[in-house]
Design brief:
128 residues; mainly alpha; Globin-like; 5 helices; Globin/Proto; metal ion binding; Hemoglobin_trunc
Length: 128
Amino acid sequence: MTTLTDITNLEDIKLLVDTFYSKVQKDSFIGPIFNEKIGNNWPDHLEKMYRFWQTILLEVHSYSGSPFPPHKQLPVAKEHFERWMEIFTETTDSLFAGPLAEEAKLRAKNMAEMFNYKIEYFRNAEKK
């Protein structure tokens, strides 16, 4: 059995991101939402995700921007974020073990919860 190591560099980030989004694209529940929104722009999206996670986990400041606005109008609900998190956790746990892997899962969980909250907030505000 191979002993898993922690996330330590950009190559690890790329492995995590590529593996995760490969599963997302094929997922019957959330895959169609991602594939419709991203279309043929997967390479650009993946590059952005490499920079995002590199900034968060490795403190290499290669990402700038606001991650929420592109997600604001997505047709998603809490169960979509739960599935996203399930895939992210499974992927991370299958590839890595250590403090940064745990940090990645915590950051992903916090982001999913915050995005879900904000999307619900904006939907309810628009109904008024």
